[in-house]
Amino acid sequence: MQTPTIRDVAARAGVSVATVSRVLSEHPSTSAASRQKVLSAAADLGFRPNAQARSLRRTRTNTIGVLVSDVRNPFFAEIAHTVEQTALSHEMATLLCNADESTEQQDHCLDLLVSQRVDGMIVTPQGDGSGSLREVLSLGLPVVFVDRTIDGVEVPSVTSDNRTGIVEAVQHLAGLGHRRIGYVAGPQVTSTGRERLAAYREAVADAGLDTDPGLVFEGDFRSASGVAGARALLALPDPPTAVLAADSLMTFGVLLECRDRGLRIGADLSVIGYDDIESFGLVSPPLTVIAHDPSRMGALAVDMIRDLLAGEPVTSAVLTSSLVLRGSTGPAGGTR
Amino acid sequence: MQTPTIRDVAARAGVSVATVSRVLSEHPSTSAASRQKVLSAAADLGFRPNAQARSLRRTRTNTIGVLVSDVRNPFFAEIAHTVEQTALSHEMATLLCNADESTEQQDHCLDLLVSQRVDGMIVTPQGDGSGSLREVLSLGLPVVFVDRTIDGVEVPSVTSDNRTGIVEAVQHLAGLGHRRIGYVAGPQVTSTGRERLAAYREAVADAGLDTDPGLVFEGDFRSASGVAGARALLALPDPPTAVLAADSLMTFGVLLECRDRGLRIGADLSVIGYDDIESFGLVSPPLTVIAHDPSRMGALAVDMIRDLLAGEPVTSAVLTSSLVLRGSTGPAGGTR
DNA sequence: CTGAAAGCGCTTACAG
DNA sequence: CTGAAAGCGCTTACAG
Fold first, then answer.
1. C-beta of residue A63 within 8 angstroms of C-beta of residue B118
2. Which residue is nearest to nucleotide C5 (CA to C1')?
3. Residue A326 domain-assigned?
4. A114 and A182 housed in the same domain
5. Are residues B127 and B207 in the same domain?
6. What CATH number is attached to the domain comprising A127?
7. Do A200 and A115 sit in the same domain of this protein?
8. Domain check: are B166 and B252 in the same one?
9. Is residue B1 part of a domain?
10. What is the DSSP code (8-state) at residue B173?
């Protein structure tokens, strides 16, 4: 037998489908008697409401689309997890898509989410706001950007302050006597990549440190580019005494390269990472990092989507980032 | 204006909705002329098919539910990522849920997935197969278990051989002269936890090593229990000279504790981890691990769901696990 | 409080 | 090849 429908429940309870619907969706206008009959009939039959049918009728799916660059990145995994849990607590489902740092795949995902008629989307955007993203926005679908934004695209967002942490990191290193600080930058097609690099440049200049452009290596937010960045920087005629990376995966790559070269972190090379990822705890000494809060970002993004759906005004949020001092930095030229 | 429907397209193209539907779903019986008119009308209007309506009518959603214990666990993130990408390549969406290692939450997620009428589910199950899981199965919904299984529940699954890797690891350590091998076990309410522990016990006995039950600490697949396990084992009057952990997060915990105690891995304590997680590369020397293939598991699981949907027979798959020798083990009592 | 009826946006036999 | 019509499983004004 097929999954029972509301009709089957109505028949068994001896009431109309309208009454069944009202009882099941907790509409106030129902008598205790029918409530009773319906509930027990539904239980007997093992009735499972069909969300598809309900959505079609209500023109609302109770589903939110989540588009991240890659769940395998711990930072985004944390966001995805929190979004899912928060949504679940409001009886909403989440449709997860990975853009894999590809604009083409991002478009594909957006199309899918639109077809699924998600009520809103939480996205870590990339690219210039053309393609499917533009279409989605013109549809008036509630969208919240998380972590990243797109210039010229007016969408509520929850991001981190990409400046303070970097500035604190540079000042801290300057205080330790470092004059040449290597920087593994994020891709300049992302807002986070751009803002963090700008902050680095500004802080380096303000502190009167070496502004040699060779100290900046542009990576792509993947670990391999962290490795490549570390190699390039350490191969300079006058290599940096400290290295800063613009996200967790690239930090990871830098650390891998240090391990391969047998460099003692904090002594041979000072390293400051980005994102307070649990696995950085494996490094010895513990890594000094620029921390922000992906979990809070995810939770806030869901709140914002819910506000948008409720027609309430929302304002973008910028969370703080800050330097968490641990043991991976030391005086310049320590034991070299 | 609302999102255009098939009616709007029909009106603009000057054909019936039936024809529009046929063209859009690539039904063979359509003339080139109407195809042309429909396609351009759809494009003009920016028509987006409503997956909800289609699903209701077709009684098929083209969506597959994915229930993992926790996406923040790199092992499951990898599975989730592959499942999503593979599904996407077949134009299917994935609904992701995290059970957070809680049977209650697992039930909640299953209910949600049923209501969403996913075509099938890929789940990393836990518990005894009662509750919502039993209901779901009695519904006849295609389900594939991944990584874990449940005793007495007949569901096609793709798992790893939980025995070989462990046996190889124990033999390897025995060959290095270790007599007392500590084991941080997974929760015994999971099939993987049970099978791996059984393999450890068998291998230890076969190699004639110390079978002291105190050498086994039962963790819960979270990093904190790896820390606790390492502490408990190292606090024994006669502590083990090598430690093996039953999953990535607990391995992680063991490594954290080693770092905190300043133990030199491979010299002061031999360590073998489970899962070939990228972040284990941060450890020095590189970690010897028992590796299996989450990505392949995810891809296979999708194939199996598709076969089930197509009414084809499927057989469970057991992938291999094996020891990957790197540098984290050394002779027993090395430099103690 | 309750029921009959219309309709959400599609698909698909059934005729032609 | 094409159209009219029924129907997927719900919800919700509209009467009563």
1. no
2. A18
3. no
4. no
5. no
6. 3.40.50.2300
7. no
8. yes
9. no
10. H
CA-to-C1' span, B13 to D4 (A): 18
CA contacts within 13 A on the Cβ side of B201: 12
Asked if A53 and B51 come within 8 Å (Cβ–Cβ), the reply is no
With CA atoms as reference, the chain A residue closest to B141 would be: A3
Burial of A112 from C-beta contacts in 10 A (0-12 / 13-18 / 19+): buried
Residue A31 CB closer than 7 angstroms to strand C? yes
The tally of domains found in chain A comes to: 3
Residues on chain B touching A121 (C-beta within 8 angstroms):
none
- As given in the structure block, the two tokens for residue B32 are 């080139």
B304-323 residues labelled b (16+ CB within 10 A) or e (exposed): bbbbbeeeeebeebeeebbb
- Give Rg (Cα) of chain A: 26
Choose among A52, A114, A278: nearest Cβ to B61: A52
pLDDT value for B334 = 56
Based on the domain organization, do A173 and A287 belong to the same domain?
yes
Chain B nearest CA to A208, separation (Å): 33
Å between CA of B99 and C1' of D6: 41
Overall pTM > 0.90: yes
Backbone φ and ψ for B29, nearest 5 degrees, come out as: -80, 75
Name every chain A residue with its beta carbon within 8 A of the beta carbon of B49: 115
Residue A336 has pLDDT above 70, yes or no: no
Alpha-carbon span A206 to A203, nearest angstrom = 5
Between CA B191 and CA B185 the distance in angstroms is 12
Q: Locate all alpha helices (DSSP H) within B160-292, ordered by sequence.
A: 164-175, 191-206, 223-234, 248-261
User: What residues make up the domain containing A266?
Assistant: 161-292
Q: Does B133 lie in the same domain as B15?
A: no
- Are residues B179 and B153 part of one domain? no
Q: Rounded distance, CA A241 to CA A265, Å?
A: 11
Counts of helices then strands in chain B (DSSP H, E): 12, 12
- Same domain for A216 and A261? yes
Q: Is residue A268 part of a domain?
A: yes
Q: Is residue B328 part of a domain?
A: no
Structure tokens at B194: 């049970």
pLDDT digits (tens, 9 = 90+) for A222-267: 999 999 999 999 999 999 999 999 999 999 999 999 999 999 999 9
Please check the confidence at residue A4 and state whether its pLDDT lies above 80.
Answer: yes
In terms of Cα–Cα distance, which of B238, B243, B207 is closest to B228?
A: B243
Residue contact A93–B116, C-beta within 8 A: yes
| Nucleotides on strand D lying under 7 Å from protein C-beta | 1-5, 7-13
